[in-house]
Amino acid sequence: MYYTNYYRKDTGLVADIARAINGEYSAIACYEQLAGMAPNEEERNRILEIRKDEIRHFQTFSQIYTSLTGRQPTPHVNEKCPSEYTAGLHFAFKDEQNTVDFYLDIADKTTDPNIKERFKRASADEQNHAVWFLYFITSGYKPR
Length: 144
Hints:
The chain is an all-alpha fold. It has helices spanning 5-9, 11-37, 41-69, 85-109, 113-138. Helices cover 78% and strands 0% of the residues. The longest helix is centred in the middle third of the chain and has 29 residues, at 41-69.
């Protein structure tokens, strides 16, 4: 099912959704890398749970994009993940916090209730992720 031509013409919304897709795609790759560097099983498992949320967001946003444009998105990594664990946590925390506002902006821009709800839900997930990354940053782990 495709949305009406009104939504197809909203190139700003489509561009924002494409940017969100690329952000999720980048986070999926980064969090796999971070999980591999995690100092303990608890952090590794939590990062992998966060990664599962990012995969779900990626799939949801890709479906919305396809509905709006009639095309599959062509995602790419837009930011390289730091290769050191603590730097990666800081990077992830900042990215998640910025994404909260970005997704709320997308939700505010659209009049489609499905798109609005999906991005509001993803925004809440991103805020939760940021809290976990902040917890890991402040929990006392110091690399050797």
